[in-house]
Structures are given as C-alpha cells and as structure tokens.
# Entry
Amino acid sequence: MVGILLVTHGDIGLALYNSAIHILGKEPNNIDYISINSNIDINSYEKTIQEKLNSLDTGKGVLVMSDIYGATPTNILKKLIYPKKYEVITGINLPMLMQALTSRALALDDLIKICLKYGKENIFDVNNDDKNTNTNN
Amino acid sequence: MMIKTQIQIINKLGLHARPSSKLAELCGQYSSNIWILKDDNKISAKNMMDILMLAVPHKSKITILAEGNDEKEATNQIKKLIKSRFGEEE
# Structure
C-alpha cells in the first residue's frame, strides 16, 4: 500500500484528514500529516518530513500532497523528492484525498495520475451545473 | 450474462459522500464489473468519486449493471445496502 503524507500550511491537512475519516467511517491506514507553521524554523521540517516518509514507506512508496505550488510546504518537499519512492503533488482538495484513500492498491505513478485527474475534475461552477435543479431563480 | 436492476435511492440525503463511500467499498469486494447508470452517465460503481459526480438526489432512480462470476451476489448486496438507507435514519 502506498503511504500518504499531507504537508500543508497550518492545519489544512489535519482538517482534510478528519473529514476523510468522517466520510469513510473509519480511520485509514498508513497516512500522516504535518502542519507547517511559519513561526518555526523551516529547516527543522526537513528532518521531520524525512522521518515520516521513512515510516510511511512499506516498499510501495509515499505520495505526498501539499497545498500551494511555490509556497513553503511545497518548496521544502521539492528537496525530498525521490523518484518512484517519494513523490509530491500540489493543490490538495478533499476529492483528491478521497480518491487517494480509495485507490491504495494502485502503484505510486498510477495513484498520482488518478489523484490529479479527480482533484481537477471535481472543481465546478455549480451555478452553471446542468445538474442544478433549483428553479427558484 | 449481465444483471440489470433499477433501484430508487430512498435515504433523504441521496448518494452523498458517506453512502458513495459505502457503495464503492461494497462493490470493490466483487470481481464482477459493476456500473451505475443515471441519465446519460455510466460510471464504475467501484469508484466513490465517480458515484459522487452523479449527484444522485433522494427518490431518484439509478440502474445497476453487474457482469461477472459474482454478479448475482453483488447485485443482492447492493440492493440490500440501498434499501437499508445506508444505515441512515428515515
């Protein structure tokens, strides 16, 4: 099973993790999160993240999800990428995380593709959604 | 052979996140291919996010298609889960 690590600004990862538990009705295995706080020395996170990566890797690699490309959490992660072993995607949202948690049997590269696909496809302009049946306006 | 079943979603909140998760998890236990048909859409019943994207509300009808060695058992258990309102209150 591919491990999953959420590395985000503040407690975004924790909130998403708790929401996923609520939806799944159970606590998923082999997932962890790190909240990046700008008040703490950024360099100290590298060691913490590396330790989490090592702990989550059961031989299938670890998918790391962060929030904003170009921002500190992702910048820290860039130094820790290890192709086919520790890989990073950004723009985390709940659909992306749910897809990851329900596709754990996939290999790391396939998991990345499907997470990016569903993360993007679940962004809608609901006002112009043809499934919107509200006729009050 | 393929089993085709139409069933109404009777839990008040429709196929929202938790029921979609339960349905996909159940379907994932079977080797048969299982699809859900709704309007012009046909999606894999083993993928929670695809089920959610159908945005199925209360009282609407969906069609379940199951094809494979365990299609009968899968269909029976899917019907049972939907009829149980996914464990939600009436």
Observations:
- The CA atoms of residues 45 and 76 of chain A lie 8 Å apart.
